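Usage

Read records sequentially. Each one opens with the input sequence:
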Amino acid sequence: MFLSHVRNHLRIVGALIMREIVTRYGREGLGFLWLVGEPLLFCFGVMGLWALIKPEYEHGVRVAPFVMTGYMCLLLFRHTVGYSAGALQANVGLMHHKKVRPLHIYISRSVMELAGGTAAFVVVYSVLLILSAVSLPSDPLLLYYGWIILSALSTGFAMTFAALSIRYEVMERLLPVAMYIQIPLSGAFIMVDWVPPNYQALYLLNPLPHTIEMVRAATFGEFVPTHYSLVYPAVWAAGLILLGLLLLSQTQKYLEIE
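and closes with the structure output:
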């Protein structure tokens, strides 16, 4: 019985993923390949600009892999949150189907962005590996853990903000501001070790830098100092997902389902 329920939920999520891919990218041209191509273009573009204006090394770290690890993480966060913000309102018609729940919509968006972001990360990493700009990850498990926790954190943030946006219109205005604030605070373009020691603990109250530091620790190895907690961002992710679930359970009465 339990496995049957799981299979049903997986089928719903899978169908929603296919629907979103067709809706967002269409059936012609590259189609779903843009799911990977879009973050690739962004990342290679930013890496190219940094290569032109920055020296090869900064603070003893090669610029190309530094930008790659930070920007790919930032893209995963921004795309997961950005594409989920109005997901429920855009798919309100699906609520007519009794089997489809708001949670299915957000899970499908998060899985989609995780798959596209992961594929893009692998491609960029492989290119840098061929160019001898990086080595193989020194700790693959830490890399996987940091990346998955980042995705979970992004999903929790997306669900919570989206549920609040349905109740309070002002939250839709605040979301772009919150996303821009996270650019300097996320750790995408700065490492925690570069922050003055007196402010590092304060900076690490934000859970995002922990996940990016994990990815960088696995990429750069032990010779580049990193600062992170394995538990802190996971607790944040679990808390935000739980809060998002509680808020989403009350959202349908705020939606205008025609």
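Summary fields computed downstream for this record:
- The beta strands are 57-58, 61-62.
- The first helix runs from residue 2 to 25.
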